[in-house]
Amino acid sequence: MTVTVNFAGQQLPAIGQGTWRMGDGHYTAEQEVDGLRRGLDLGLTLIDSAEMYGHGRSESIVGRAVKGRRDDAFIVSKALPSNATKKGLKEACERSLSYLGIDCLDLYLLHWPGSTPLSETLEGFEQLIDAGKIKRWGVSNFDTSATNALARTSGSSDCTTNQVLYNLGSRGIEFDLRPRLRELEIPLMAYCPVAQGGSASRHLVNHPIVQEIAAQHNASPTQLLLAWAIRPFNGERDLIAIPKAVTPAHIEENAKALEITLSAEQLAKLDEAFPPPAGPEPLDIV
Ligand code: NDP
Asked: What DSSP state is assigned to residue 159?
């Protein structure tokens, strides 16, 4: 059974697709486009991009992937804080839509907090909704204090998500940010859910407990990381993880991770190996 999350008023699969570094030459554009399309075929519906990623090159790859199948995808992009004024947001959004080759974003995020007053940025988002250029807005890299400032801003109840770094090796948000977002009924998007893969994730995927529990599910350690990220938190699922993958085997694995449910005993063992935070921690970022 595929794990879904109530996100922005609809049920979306709890694993989507990241696109950072796409268009940068690590793979051919064809491989990246094919990968995203394969991900969509397998139900990885949400695709996350940003104007910052290759100055539009990632958005162009996404545009090619969704050409002819716009309705299969839930497309997210992000504006730089330097473009968070009303005028800046409008121009940045129009550029993103043009790279993506679409009329309207499903979700538009402020990439991280900046110096433009939030009230102006929120007005800018509302104007984009009124103009039919975005369906919803949200934020990214907002720590608890920035989230509280957002909550005090008029119109903030329409915030759809906060996209932050989260994986088994980086659990700081569980102490205060996750509970605060739960109170505000704002679901999370987890970036770097597989700790950026390769050697960067070695401390997690080589851990004997991770390997033991993965084997119990006939899964890879990376699939275990994804199943862990999307597990219910305090009894409820409210998170979409957005691993980036181009390798066909990685995409297949990530989609299959939607079917893994970890038992209470397995989760407790992972808590022992990677303890939840005992106090407030600064928000991790990349
Ligand atoms: P991830 O944790 O998603 O790791 C990506 C790496 O993991 C790639 O090298 C990929 O390999 C590899 N990988 C993916 N699936 C598997 C698998 N099943 N087995 C083994 N390796 C795997 O890191 P990202 O930094 O890309 O984060 C995910 C997304 O989050 C970004 O792409 C971006 O969309 C978003 N993001 C947002 C940020 C923000 O500030 N809001 C900051 C950073 C990321 P390969 O591609 O070779 O298949």
From this structure: E
Q: What is the pLDDT of residues 102-145, one digit of tens each?
A: 999 999 999 999 999 999 999 999 999 999 999 999 999 999 99
Domain interval for residue 125: 9-273
Query: If residue 163 lies in a helix (H) or strand (E), which one and from where to where?
Result: strand 159-165
CATH number of 126's domain: 3.20.20.100
Measured CA to CA, the distance from residue 285 to residue 258 in angstroms comes to 25
Note the pTM of the prediction, 2 decimals: 0.98
Q: How far is the CA of 120 from the centre of ligand 1 (A)?
A: 32
Residue 1 lies in a domain: no
Is 256 close to ligand 1, i.e. is its CB under 6 Å away?
A: no
**203-233 residues labelled b (16+ CB within 10 A) or e (exposed):** ebbebeebeebbeebebbbbbbbbbbbbbeb
CA 142 – CA 164 distance, rounded (Å): 7
Question: Count of domains in the chain?
Answer: 1
Distance CA 18, CA 192 (A): 9
Contact 47, 73 (CB under 8 A): yes
Domain presence at residue 4: no
Burial call 105-138: b when 16+ CB within 10 Å, e when fewer: bbbbbbbbbbebebebbbbbbeebeeeebbbbbb
Ligand 1 pocket test, candidate residues 15, 17, 19, 20, most atoms within 8 A of CB: 20
> Has residue 286 been placed in a domain?
no
